[in-house]
Amino acid sequence: MNTDKIYAEAIANEYSVKNTSKVVQLKKLDRKVKRPPLVLAIVLGIVSTLILGIGMCFAMGTLGDGGTVFMIVGSIVGSLGIAGAIANYFIYDKFSKSRKQKYAGDIIALANSISEEE
User: Fold this and answer.
1) Global pTM?
2) Which CA distances in Å does 110 have to 21, 25, 52, 87?
3) Residue 14 phi/psi, 5° resolution?
C-alpha cells in the first residue's frame, strides 16, 4: 500500500471542484437567510443581559459604595438592559423578515426546480 499516493489523492480531492446538488444549494441558501438574524439576536441578548447584570450590581451595592446615587444609576442601567432584551425580539423579527424577502425569489425558484425533477 502506497501511503504517499493515498495522501496525494486526499489532497487532490480536497481542492477539486465538487458538483453540489440542488438540495445542498437550497440548504446553504436557507442557512444564509436564517443565520445572521440568529447571530444578531444571540449577541444582542447577551449584551442586554450583561447590561442588566451590571445595573443590578450597582443597585445592590456590589459595585460602587452602595449609596443612593449608585442605586439610581443601577436602576437606570438595569432598565436599559431590560429594554434591550425586550427590543431583541422585534429586531430579530424585522431582520429575519427582510432577509426572507430578499432571498425568497432564489429559494422558491430553486425549490420549484427540485420539485419538478422528481
Assistant:
1) 0.75
2) 11, 8, 44, 34
3) -65, -35
